[in-house]
């Protein structure tokens, strides 16, 4: 009976997104599926490989499939006599690829080949079909994208000013159909909600699509286009391959915060270039609504609520959003004008509950008086570092220790003294503003509480 119940449960469990590792995980060499050339002309084949120390220094090769054998045409230190003078192989470890160039193409050059790393047939390889036409035209080759697992993929597409009024789209090829991922009519596949963005660009008819949190299942053929796929308009084939780089940092894809409390987000920026524009925005169907950036912009309604902290030592930027409300739920994006693969998205979920940091959130006082801003914390934070900072559009400036009554990290919880106090004596008119009480552990910023201090002259 127990077995029957278990089988019944399996039948009715909802299907989850598959988590099995595809071929990409075990054979991470990638290149074009098909290459087209013209008699007497030349072709260049680019093959990508993971940038491990072994792969960087290992043998690269291009071989021709003959039955069960693959005969070397060119490798890192060899050229077949029949191809002497018209084939070359160049390795570009910094770009994670190597290239094979074949010139003076002959009809007999057509066939099935492999590009690979290591030993023919035993190393990592990718199968390529080469066709040679007697005269042009030849089909346009797919654009290749070699994308790190959990990183971000961005593609730009342009089809001319005459397509500016047409529907723009990105779709993924699935058997005979092309599944719409996102289009300019704000139609988004539910599986990509919050992690894909279509943006119009200049000149007219141009647009880009950005997809975050790239997973194994995102490997495949895509088309960006104007009009309707397979019916009318123009399109471009995109071949995307996801591979794992174990050195690529993993970020949280979901952050949960309690109503009235705060949430902490991390963004990758390696290196932290001063010239880079760093933006944090909330994803919406029609675009990404900017909330804060590193130039001092803070969206109206977020004053005192959001701050950006740069961490050069680990090449990250921390964003803290406090005074959480249910309407804050959604997807938030870290964006930059550089380092596109490091753009990321995080879903914020706001749950009911009580903040761990408590105190009076709005304090009014007169110039010249003494004011104490208090922030009480629970025993779970007894070993954390506590701080007060003054909020402004470019961050939150840590205040001098002598102004703060801060109990330091302790070995045990003192139930009689669990309050961090910020004192003003005497209070001055320019002390008005927002102040944050917060905790951090091992240098990592945690929960915060915001206090608005209003100062009157007493006149």
From TrEMBL:
Provide a Gene Ontology MF annotation, just one: transmembrane signaling receptor activity
Subcellular location(s) per record: Cell membrane; Secreted
Q: Which Pfam families match?
A: V-set
Its signal peptide is 1-18
- Where does the record place the Ig-like domain? 22-131, 249-351, 355-456
Task: Report the InterPro entries cross-referenced here.
Answer: CD300_family_receptors (IPR050671), Ig-like_dom (IPR007110), Ig-like_dom_sf (IPR036179), Ig-like_fold (IPR013783), Ig_sub (IPR003599), Ig_V-set (IPR013106)
GO cellular component, as recorded = extracellular region; plasma membrane
**Chief site of localization:** membrane
Q: How does it sit in the membrane?
A: Single-pass type I membrane protein
The record describes the protein's role as: Mediates selective transcytosis of polymeric IgA and IgM across mucosal epithelial cells. Binds polymeric IgA and IgM at the basolateral surface of epithelial cells. The complex is then transported across the cell to be secreted at the apical surface. During this process, a cleavage occurs that separates the extracellular (known as the secretory component) from the transmembrane segment. Through its N-linked glycans ensures anchoring of secretory IgA (sIgA) molecules to mucus lining the epithelial surface to neutralize extracellular pathogens. On its own (free form) may act as a non-specific microbial scavenger to prevent pathogen interaction with epithelial cells.
Give the protein's recorded name: Polymeric immunoglobulin receptor
Whose protein is this, by species?
A: Erithacus rubecula
Taxonomic classification: Eukaryota, Metazoa, Chordata, Craniata, Vertebrata
